[in-house]
Amino acid sequence: MSKIAFIFPGQGSQTVGMGKELADKYPEVQAYFTKADERLESELTSVIFDGPQEELTQTTNAQPALLTTSIAILDRLKSEGITADYTAGHSLGEYSALVAAGALRFEDAVYAVRKRGEFMEEAVPSGEGTMAAVLGMPREPLKEITDLVTKEGHPVGLANLNCPGQIVISGTVKGVELASEKAKEAGAKRVIPLQVSGPFHSQLMKPAADQFVSILDSITIEDAAVPVIANVTAEPVTNREEIKRLLIEQLYSPVQWEDSVEKLLELDVDTFIEVGPGKVLSGLVKKVNRRVKTYTVQDEASLEQTIQALKEEAK
Predict the structure, then answer these.
(1) Contact of 13 with 276, CB cutoff 8 Å
(2) Residue 123: other Cβ atoms inside 10 A
(3) Which of 83, 103, 167, 269 could tie 98 with a disulfide, CB 3.0–4.6 Å?
(4) Cα 68 to Cα 121: distance, rounded to the nearest angstrom
(5) How many CA atoms lie within 13 A of 297 on its CB side?
(6) Torsion of the alpha carbons at 34, 36, 39 and 41, rounded to the nearest 10
(7) Which residues does the annotation mark as catalytic?
(8) pLDDT tens-digit map of 118-169
């Protein structure tokens, strides 16, 4: 029997117009966008559907926008009777995974990620922190480099362990520059500076985590109905207290995405459905294991293709 994981994209996958086609066709999809506007007391939907892209890309908009779109699209999948044995999400996507697993109410999650985005933006003054993707270098020697640069007084660390040969580092501008240079000297194939507004998933995000505690205290977190693979540990979690602790740690800890995919494979998942805009996570899953089946659901056409493919497999 096939085991399915729903996986949810993180910041960077946002595009103007995402979810609009489905929202125009299905009132129950539109309802999620309306709920988000009401909960945030803002015109988030007009930013999602009409842009401009620069406004949508701002962390405080991108995070609730991606969560809203992913969960609205998920509604269509569930209405076709497709359910998951596990859920997981990349960074921000973990909140979508928790909504999908029944641990968070949608309205609480959209409010929490808006505040999360605000705190992340405020944690480090603009221009002082950054991130870079390091390609073609194993994690152990790269961690030795970031540890060394941090000891020299320029904080930097591993932030996203995405797939074999793709790791994102995060820290102060100087720390990332020095670690990038040393990584290239040590044999990294390429180092690509990322256009981000801060040093996410680094120790510099500790102030954001401290502030975020009060937000999680103010919303209801339930035990998850299906296990969620946590970014921080790459292990399944269902307990509400553990979920809360890990969401706080997630702000300043590396996203263990490669290990999360490996864990899902260990748990006999053979079908990954990426729910939400883009195909980034499906690509990363394939780089971990080319043989697994991946589907992306982001519009009417991809929804129909996925439903048809799953029905054929079930025969």
Answers:
(1) yes
(2) 23
(3) 103
(4) 20
(5) 29
(6) -80
(7) 91, 201
(8) 999 999 988 899 999 999 999 999 999 999 999 999 999 999 999 999 999 9
